[in-house]
Design goal:
Helix content: under 10%
Strand content: over 45%
Number of helices: 1
Number of strands: 11
Structural class: mainly beta
Order of helices and strands: EEEEEEEEEEEH
Length: 153
């Protein structure tokens, strides 16, 4: 993984994932942020822009995953999406947080199922309205912006 200043959807840098097929499952190589607090019983959206390296292929699978951050590491959301464009394209998933409790979770991309390189940019995890997919008023909420990784990497 590396910060790449040769291409970006937003700004002048993106995050390039150099593909490698790991033994076992997709989650054996992942890109994720530090755990955050997300209230149970709420609907969230995971959204990001990505493109596949045209020199290596036209598409590749990526698992979008949300896991509780505790000793047993229980995952409760995992969906495989296919990155299917060599141009910047937006991908989005809805996540209904289970339970009523406030959960400490991480959100990330599990990438060990393909050796095709790809870029991601403008990764967002935010509380959204159940049926509209629109972000709720962010005052008092905690959106996670992937852009911070580009400056703190």
């Amino acid at each position: 993984m590396k910060v790449d200043n040769s291409t970006a959807y937003l700004g002048n840098k993106s995050f390039k994932i150099v593909g490698i097929v790991a033994t076992g499952q997709a989650l054996h190589a992942k890109v994720r942020h530090e755990p955050i607090i997300a209230e149970g019983g709420k609907t969230f959206t995971i959204s990001f822009w990505a493109k596949v390296d045209a020199k290596e292929g036209n598409s590749r699978p990526v698992d979008v995953s949300v896991q509780r951050e505790n000793d047993s590491w229980p995952g409760f959301y995992n969906v495989t999406i296919i990155l299917d464009s060599t141009e910047w394209k937006e991908y989005a998933c809805k996540v209904d947080m289970p339970g009523e409790a406030i959960e400490k979770v991480w959100v990330g991309l599990c990438v060990a199922e393909s050796d095709i390189d790809f870029w991601i940019d403008d990764f967002r995890f935010f509380e959204s309205e159940s049926n509209t997919g629109k972000a709720v008023n962010r005052i008092g909420k905690f959106p996670t912006l992937w852009g911070k990784i580009k400056t703190n990497f």
